[in-house]
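W.,

You were right to be curious about this one. When I first looked at the sequence I had no strong expectations either way, so I just let the prediction run and decided to look at it fresh. Below is the sequence, 450 residues in total, followed by the output.
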Amino acid sequence: MDLWDETEARYRERTPTSRRTYESLRSVVPAGVASTYRAFEPYPMVIDRADGPYLYDVDDNRYLDYDLNNGAGMVGHNHPAVTEAVRDQLERGTLYTHPHELLGDAAREIADRWDAIDLVRFTNSGTETTMHAIRVARAYSGRDKLLKIEGSYHGCHDSVLVSKAVPSHKLGHPKRPATVIESDGVPSAIADTVEVAPWNDLEAVEEIMRENVNEIGALVVEPIVMNVGMTQPHGEFLQGLRELCDEYQVPYIFDEVKTGVKVAPGGAAEYYGVEPDLVAMAKSIGGNYPVGAFGGREEIMREIEDGAAHFGTYNGNPLALRALVTTLREVLTEDAYAHVDELGERLAAGYEEIMADAGLVGRVEHVNSQGIVVFTDEELANYRDFDRHVDVDFHENYWFEMLDRGVIPHPHHASQQWTISVQHEREHVDEHLDAFADVAPLLAERQNTS
C-alpha cells in the first residue's frame, strides 16, 4: 500500500457518515455539491457546523479552517459583530427592492478603500460582479472584445469561461495563447469576442492590443493570478498595463474578488499602488454573506444610467449590506490587518523552515493573509509555469495528509491558496505548522523516490 492508498484509507475511516450523506445528496443534487468545483475524490466531507476558525463535519471531526469558504471568510466563521448585526437586520427585513440607507453606507465604505472608485453598484456573487463590470466597460468603450489573461478565473459567465485551465497541448504559442472555451453549452462564437494574453509579458499584451486596435473594449485581470496559486505581477507589469490601457483607450478592470480587502484594506490596487478604471469584488467584503460589488470612475459607471443593463431582485439587499458594512467598519480594522499580516508571515516562514529541515523541495508564495505552498523550486510567473512544474497529484497527498491531522490548509486543489482570518491566533498557526512538520518528512520521502 503506497502513501496515497494509506491516506485515502484513513480518510474513509474517519468520514463514514460523510460518505453516506454524500451518496444521498448525489441522488438529488448533480455531483452532490452546490458548485461543481467542490466535488472531489473519493468524496468531500459533509459539513455540519462552523465556528471561529473551525469547521465540524457530520462525523464530528473538527478542522482548523484555512479554506474559509474559498477565501470569503476573512472574518472567520460566525464573527460575533457580524452575527449580531445580521440578527438585528432580520427583525427589520431582509429584502426591500426599494432604496435604503444601507446602500449609501455600503457604497461609501467601499469607495473609502479604493481611490479609483467614485460610484458603486451591488451584486450577489463574484460571477455577477465581473459580468456586469465587463458589460459596463464595453458599453463605455463602445467596443466588443474582451482581453483576459491566460489561466485567470473570473467566474462562470460565458465571456470568461475561456482559457482558464487549458491542457498543455492546446495552449498555443506563449506570446499568443489560444482562445479555448472550457464549458459545454458556451457558444463557439464567444471565442471570437475574447483575446487571451500571457501574464507577466507586457510586450505580448501590447502586441495583442496593437493587432486588435479599436476592437478591445475591456481588459480584465486578477492583479494576483489566484487560479494558479499566488502568481504575482513582476516588476511594473500592472502599471505597464495601466499605461497600455491609457494609450489604447481600453477600460482597465481589476478583478479583486479574491484579493479585495484581503491583501490590503484597499485590495491589490492599494498593495501594488496601481489605479484601475473599475474594480470587481465579492467574497470577504461580505463577512460570509452573498454579496458582490463593482465600482469605478464616475464617467464609466454612469453608463448604467444610459443603457448598460444592471438588474437583480436581490442586488443590494439589506441583510447582505448590513453584513458588509459591519465587516468593513467594525471587523476589518487597522488592528485586524496588523494581526492577520503577522500571522501570515509566521505561517509562511514556518513552512519554509519545515521544508528546509525535512529536505522537502518547495516554496511559499504569500501576500499578507493569502498564501500557498508549491512543491517545486521553480519560479512560477504564469499559468504555463504552474502547469509545467506543479505536480497536482503530489499536492493532493499533502492536502489529504493535512486534513487527516485536522487542518484544511486551503481549498481543495493545488491551484488554491490559504486565507488567514481575524479569528485565527498564533496558537492556530502553530497547530497548522505542527501538522505540516508531521507531513513534510513523508512528502520528502515520496519526492526523493519518485
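Here's what jumped out at me. The longest helix spans residues 334-358. And, maybe more interesting for your project: The mean pLDDT is 97.

Coffee later to discuss?

I.
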